[in-house]
Amino acid sequence: MLRIVSFTFNGFAENTYLLIDEATRATAIVDPGAYSRAEQQTLRDYIELEQLSVKYLLNTHAHIDHVLGNAFVLKTYPGIPFLLHALDLPTLRAVPTYAGPYGFAAYEPAEPTGELAAGQVIALGESKLEVRFAPGHAPGHVVLYDAAGGQLIGGDVLFKGSVGRTDLPGGDHPTLLKSIETELLTLPDATVVHPGHGPATTIGAERRSNPFLH
Question: This protein's superkingdom (predicted)?
Answer without folding.
Answer: Bacteria
